[in-house]
């Protein structure tokens, strides 16, 4: 009797309703709280409307923001001989996008409420900043890159 069995196939995210973009679908799911997807969609599409009113291509700005915020390398802790080393590792595609989405949403949440009235405005501003290589999410990426650069000596400790 075989021990391998059949491999369960990974479910494919259908993307979002308006743009049919897989990455945007993941972004909406990352924003969603308590299963309220329509609320998350309203917020994201509201941010896209704000970007469109300012004369930008919303989907282009979004994809550019995800691409720029996504880290190339990160550090992972590895225990060797009782000491924990921060080992720099390359970030693969799926994790790169997940980290970029998380960092953009966190940066938008941290924006001051006195400056922006709605979360859609905060999100639009953060996406625009991230696409222009500025903002809090970019700082987070730079910190990850600096940590990897500082611990380059431990790169030979592979996982």
Task: Draw up the topology in text.
Layout: H1 22-31, H2 37-53, H3 58-69, E1 73-80, E2 83-90, H4 93-110, H5 119-131, H6 136-150
Antiparallel strand pairs: 1-2
Output the structural class: mainly alpha
Helical fraction: 40-55%
**CATH-level-2 architecture:** Orthogonal Bundle
* Helix and strand run: HHHEEHHH
- Number of helices, where a helix is a run of at least 4 consecutive DSSP H or I residues: 6
CATH superfamily: Ribosomal protein S7/S5
User: Largest sheet at a glance?
Assistant: 2 strands, antiparallel
Q: Classify the oligomer.
A: single chain
Number of domains: 1
Labels describing this entry:
6 helices; 159 residues; single chain; Ribosomal Protein S7; 10% strand; two-stranded antiparallel sheet
Description:
The chain has 159 residues and is mainly alpha-helical. The protein has a single domain (22-75, 92-149), classed as Ribosomal Protein S7, CATH 1.10.455.10. It is 53% helix and 10% strand. The protein contains six helices and two strands; from the N terminus they run H-H-H-E-E-H-H-H. It has helices at residues 22-31, 37-53, 58-69, 93-110, 119-131, 136-150; strands spanning 73-80, 83-90. It has a two-stranded antiparallel ribbon. Helix 2 packs across helix 5 (119-131). The radius of gyration is 19 Å and the shape is globular. The mean pLDDT is 93.
């Amino acid at each position: 009797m075989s021990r391998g069995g059949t491999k369960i196939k990974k479910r494919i995210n259908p993307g979002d309703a308006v743009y049919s973009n897989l990455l945007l679908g993941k972004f909406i799911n990352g924003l969603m709280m308590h299963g309220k997807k329509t609320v998350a969609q309203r917020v994201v599409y509201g941010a896209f409307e704000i970007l469109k009113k300012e004369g930008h291509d919303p989907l282009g700005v979004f994809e550019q923001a995800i691409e720029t915020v996504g880290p190339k390398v990160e550090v992972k802790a590895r225990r060797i001989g009782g000491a924990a080393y921060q080992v720099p590792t390359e970030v693969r595609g799926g994790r790169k996008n997940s980290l970029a989405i998380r960092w953009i949403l966190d940066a938008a949440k941290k924006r001051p409420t006195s400056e922006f009235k709605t979360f859609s405005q905060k999100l639009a501003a953060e996406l625009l900043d991230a696409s222009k290589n500025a903002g809090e999410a970019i700082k987070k990426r730079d910190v990850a890159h600096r940590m990897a650069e500082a611990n380059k000596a431990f790169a030979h400790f592979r996982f």
